[in-house]
Amino acid sequence: MGRVVVDVMPKPEILDPQGKAVAGALPRLGLDQFVSVRQGKRFELEVEGDVTPEVLAAAREAAERVLSNPIIEDVVNVVDAAAEVSQA
């Protein structure tokens, strides 16, 4: 069974109150290396069989039509989860 990972982020011009809350909390925890935070969404889509280019194309279409709100969000990543693990 294959798995596709889709990452969706708010467009840069959209306010991100959750990201701002996290950014405010980090220095209080002694983690002051970070200057900003943006919070997005991650989806994992399982498929029968291998992740092929056709499956990735279908996942991108699903991401653009269903998983994201194109008015306020960008689809920033659609990858085979196995490839993502090997890059880490």
UniProtKB/TrEMBL annotation:
It catalyses: N(2)-formyl-N(1)-(5-phospho-beta-D-ribosyl)glycinamide + L-glutamine + ATP + H2O = 2-formamido-N(1)-(5-O-phospho-beta-D-ribosyl)acetamidine + L-glutamate + ADP + phosphate + H(+). GO terms for biological process: 'de novo' IMP biosynthetic process. It is an enzyme of class 6 (ligase). GO terms for cellular component: cytoplasm. It is found in: Cytoplasm. It comes from the Bacteria. Transmembrane segments: none annotated. InterPro entries: PurS, PurS-like_sf. GO terms for molecular function: ATP binding; phosphoribosylformylglycinamidine synthase activity. Its EC number is 6.3.5.3. Pathway: Purine metabolism; IMP biosynthesis via de novo pathway; 5-amino-1-(5-phospho-D-ribosyl)imidazole from N(2)-formyl-N(1)-(5-phospho-D-ribosyl)glycinamide: step 1/2. The keyword Transferase does not apply. SUPFAM superfamilies: PurS-like. Keywords: ATP-binding, Cytoplasm, Ligase, Nucleotide-binding, Purine biosynthesis. PANTHER family: PHOSPHORIBOSYLFORMYLGLYCINAMIDINE SYNTHASE SUBUNIT PURS. Part of the phosphoribosylformylglycinamidine synthase complex involved in the purines biosynthetic pathway. Catalyzes the ATP-dependent conversion of formylglycinamide ribonucleotide (FGAR) and glutamine to yield formylglycinamidine ribonucleotide (FGAM) and glutamate. The FGAM synthase complex is composed of three subunits. PurQ produces an ammonia molecule by converting glutamine to glutamate. PurL transfers the ammonia molecule to FGAR to form FGAM in an ATP-dependent manner. Part of the FGAM synthase complex composed of 1 PurL, 1 PurQ and 2 PurS subunits. Belongs to the PurS family. This is Phosphoribosylformylglycinamidine synthase subunit PurS. It comes from Sanguibacter suaedae. The gene is purS.
